[in-house]
Amino acid sequence: MLPDDPLSRVLVVDLSRREARVERRPELFERSLGGAGAAIRLLDEECPRGADPLGPANPIVLAVGPLTGLFPLASKTVAMFRSPLTGNLGESHAGGRSAVALRLAGYGALVVRGASESPVYVAVHGDRVCFRDASSLWGVRSSATVARVIRQREPEAGFRSILRIGRAGEERLPYACVTTETYRHFGRMGLGAVFGAKRLKALVISGHRSLPVADAKAYRQTYREIHDAAVASPLMRKYHDVGTPENLVPLNLLKGLPTRNLQQAWFEGAERISGEHLAEGYLGRRLACAHCPVGCIHLAALREPSAHEPYFYKTSMIGYDYEPIYALGSMLGGGEPEGLLRLIDAIEVVGLDAMSTGVALAWATEAMERGLVRPGDAGGLTLRWGDTAAYTQAVQWLVEPPTDFFRALARGVEHASAVYGGADFALAFGGLEMPGYHTGPGAHLGFLTGARHSHLDSAGYSLDQKAVKAGDLPSPQQVAASLLKEERWRQVLSSLVVCFFARGIYTAPVVTKALASAGFTLGEGDLARLGADVLRAKHAFKRREGFSWTGLRIPRRILETPSPLGPLSPQFLQEALAAFAAAAEAPGP
Amino acid sequence: MRTRLAVVDGDRCVGCEVCMFACVRRAGEGGLANARIHVRSDGGIERGFVVVVCRACPEPQCSKVCPTNALERRDGGGVRLVAERCLGCRNCVAACPFGAAFWDDEAQKPAICLYCGYCAQWCPHGVLALEKAKEAAHAS
Known about the structure:
The complex is a heterodimer of chains A (589) and B (140).
Chain A: E1 9-14, E2 19-24, H1 26-32, H2 35-46, E3 60-63, E4 77-82, E5 89-94, H3 98-104, E6 109-113, E7 120-125, E8 128-133, H4 143-153, E9 160-164, H5 167-170, E10 178-180, E11 184-186, H6 191-197, E12 200-206, E13 210-211, H7 216-232, H8 234-241, H9 248-254, H10 275-281, E14 283-287, E15 297-305, E16 313-320, H11 322-328, H12 337-350, H13 354-369, H14 388-399, H15 404-409, H16 413-420, E17 428-429, E18 432-433, H17 441-449, H18 455-458, H19 460-470, H20 476-495, H21 508-517, H22 524-544, H23 557-560, H24 570-585
Parallel strand pairs in A: 1-6, 7-12
Antiparallel strand pairs in A: 1-2, 3-4, 3-6, 4-5, 7-8, 9-10, 9-12, 10-11, 14-15, 15-16, 17-18
Chain B: E1 3-7, H1 18-26, E2 30-31, E3 38-41, E4 49-52, H2 61-64, E5 71-73, E6 79-81, H3 91-95, E7 102-104, E8 109-111, H4 118-122, E9 128-132, H5 133-138
Antiparallel strand pairs in B: 1-9, 3-4, 5-6, 7-8
């Protein structure tokens, strides 16, 4: 690391004492680069064993990496905390502007400790940290209003990021999200609830300092190589044109798109909620994260007439991506784009994780169909596949529950099914509601084994798709080895906070070269070791908090609905799980 | 030939700030200090972006208010900073109605566009272009 690089500065904000100070941790960043690598070590230090996820002892760690602010597509912020949803390692990544803002404010990481007695928002403008009263912002219906107020009150437009929670976070719902720049999210695992428990309504970060480079000429050269590869790559074109929903139709044709709570894996209405259809009928604007030429963020312009007055229209800009379309579209049997967009918007207003919400509502719908839950339990509301108006009402009731049923559902499908039954079709892995892939054993093994139980941990769906193409299913041991290898490499990328969409560009030799500009001398072997180390540190934290490889629940539903690679075999899954656990726990490399 | 930077289609801006990073990188640094171009949301990113560049005005207001003539007028519009004359009074920053006279916190002097067009070369979505200054005086 270069001596004058501010990366090694960790800003520690203590909400209980309303104090902030800077700790210099060069060894932490030398060893782990930043991002996930730095965050897991800070979490391990800061979070006492068994800490209540909603208590003051649970810290929030945000971390960025050495390439942030220097190179394009290294603009993710990694958040870590103990998850109120899974009770274990909480890890969530977000794009937007927060990574560049934090790095250029002069920090590699930010730790929030303690809890405030009254609602507060914290503004970090470079070296200045301000604790602002947020009592009047607490309870405001729409989290977009909160963002608008803060935008007007705080300086540094264009250099700042505003992270905020909605009513769901205030109510400490375990799958509440944190929204940044209106359309990006620390979506998964309940960071919003941890904010809410700390009475932290929002966090504003701004900065625009310069960053040193080792050799200006070499820096410009490497920059050009990475940039040119990014703008020329077909993957990047795909994400700019149609965006992440481009995956919807291919997954549906493959019969790997979870539909109606995964009672089937293809959706007859997929065409109408596809990225192509949304782009043609609704796309209103595309946006980019800071320092990313791609611009994958797609906003629909939804123009709706007033129910009460002729010629009175309201136009809302609503962000959409593959995962919300899966969770709130196919998973709920909803093939009508406008209803889907309204439902996405309702979830944005309250600040819930769209994926967990969709899976929870899908479970609830099936539980009602089967008579496990009656309309009387749900305040008279009947949930039916495709009825987006009812689902929109249900979202309100997750935040303001009229009955115990909604109180239970707001705690996730694992909890709700423990109360009402229906665990066989409660689609959660490691306590986290499932992502939108039923492509084969690789996907589900990835959800089970991934340190954050995400499809992004090890991209098992990609393994499955390759197997479909090859017409040959690898052995359980081969699947386990591939997943582990991928998850280890992704620790390197998420320690650099490189967007996974750019994984084809940031290969090991490119990473080595880019790091040289930031004054890090790491060879490809060093990177491989670093990836394995970071993953080991995550597993160690999870074990410390009670995780065991043998305690993972496999929802029966994934065995019942055939995947593109045929019905899943429990024996195959168990063998692969055992192989993964053994290899992950083994010492070396 | 005199040149100036032009925002040819602000509606195409996705807010990636690649232009701002390019401006700083040209000087051999990372980050965003002293970027001579600025992109910010137009009151929420759903409304799009405002791209602030020096328009190389034929009658630059920044130059008019400079007490020491540190912002020398260029032929064809725009100004050039003569740093040793600058007192750091910030009159220019206040005078530019577009907010295109930026401030270098370290030097305590304005950061003024060099009309080099490096940022425009990097814009991935055709928002910026380098134009001949004389034509520009009549356009937009």
